[in-house]
Hints:
Elements: E1 16-25, E2 30-38, E3 44-46, H1 51-55, E4 75-78, E5 83-86, E6 89-90, H2 91-97, H3 100-109, H4 115-126, H5 136-140, H6 148-162, H7 172-198, H8 211-220, H9 231-243, H10 251-261, H11 266-277, H12 285-296, H13 302-310, H14 331-347, H15 352-365, H16 368-372, H17 380-390, H18 397-418, H19 455-458
Antiparallel strand pairs: 1-2, 2-3, 4-5, 5-6
Helix pairs in contact: 2-9, 3-18, 6-7, 6-11, 7-8, 7-18, 8-9, 9-14, 9-18, 10-11, 10-18, 11-18, 12-17, 14-17
The structure holds s-citryldethia Coenzyme A.
Amino acid sequence: MSRKPRTSAPGAAKGADASSFTLTDNATGQSWQLPARTGAFGNRLIDIKKLYGDTGVLTYDPGFTSTASCQSDITFIDGEKGVLLHRGYSIEELASRSDFMETCYLLLYGELPTPEQKASFDADIKNHTLMHDQFISFYKGFMRNAHPMAIMVGVVGALSAFYHDSIDINDLSQRQLAAHRLIAKMPTIGAYAYKYSLGMSFPMPRNDLSYPENLLRMMFSNPAEEYKINPVLARAIDRILILHADHEQNASTSTVRLAGSSGANPYACIAAGIASLWGPAHGGANEAVLKMLEEIGGVERVGEYIARAKDKSDSFRLMGFGHRVYKNYDPRATVMRKTCHEVLGVLGIDDPKLKLAMALEKIALEDDYFVEKKLYPNVDFYSGIILKAMGFPTSMFTVMFAIGRTVGWVSHWKEMLKDEDQKIGRPRQLYLGHKKRKYIPIDNRGHTDKKTSWSWLWGGR
Length: 461
Ligand code: SDX
């Protein structure tokens, strides 16, 4: 992977700050000056890029609770105020006034498109929605009851086995081609995973339909009859995709950036992001919320589960609640709840799970534990209720999240490759293991009871 040519004059980096921080080692009395960086909203950071080189001291931050892994212009979150901006535009405005294709253009290219730019971007995405015919055989390798996220990880990674014309990351036109291909193909790949589980044929995407309309038709059409698009559902899907498009350095985006930092091809990087998103603490939470609501069953048991969520000895957590960054309402959850009411109203569905979710939210938000820990509903709390009402099976909820988030992943991948500060991600560690010890031949080792299982070696929280 060739070093990036320096495009800007070697002067002050963006966000440079003449001030600094002092680090003092109280054990030795030594002090060091650490340069400061200032974000667009005046937040100051300690630049520790050279800390270890200058001091021999590492920082320790598992989960990166206090660490900025990169610089970025794409998305800004103010967790205290519940603010989410994409290239400076609020998620509330984008969700109500933009559409997903326009939001994709904004995230990828930094500005809202002109009418001509939007038309040509739409057309280019439509040019890449089809899958290579041989690609379909990949699905046949899976059991019909395979989780669709398992299929997504495998099939998206396999794109690099087909599209050799867009895996050279040093060729800018190949980077763009891969980015557009991934955005275009994710609905097709996801819908086919669902159709495969049903034993149904794979409907082709159609260029006379919009992005959300194609997704709905590929998911729910029946080859024996004409599929009628419900414009309210298409608009709701479009908004759900906008709400999931990007969210700065979340676990899956950080996974994509780390994979990309080694020079891996874009399809492999996005497959890695899909794998990370699948976890119930991240994108898998929408599926976990529905399972939790089904387990709670009725409002009369909400108190029992709230108590379990507060009980340190109980591993149960209120799925769809809490967030590493938001210590206020997740603005996406507010839009999602409004959309939930709209969709269920249009569909004439009186889903007891929605009532249960609202009761759960109300009780939790009045409970000291949740108030003190600033645990609010996040983007995943309501999304599953809407998707279920539209006919999506629970197992497809995280696939929908991945379809929306692909543009965020590829936008960060593109930004990472252009960043002159960027190099292969290689964190260090705090080593607490054995000091050096001599090898003992097996005949000189003690014996254990043959029945000793390995389970005790795994341990567990
Ligand atoms: C997404 O990063 C992103 O931006 C992600 C995302 C995106 O768009 O990419 O926004 C999408 O992943 C949303 C989050 C979906 N996950 C869930 O809804 C799962 C339930 N939530 C939790 O697991 C948790 O809140 C996390 C994982 C979301 C955040 O965990 P943190 O930041 O590591 O916080 P923590 O686990 O340290 O919790 C802090 C305290 C703990 O109590 P104490 O040890 O301090 O006493 O809050 C408690 C936790 O026990 N807590 C919860 C809770 N979430 C946190 N207690 C009960 N129920 C919960 N849901």
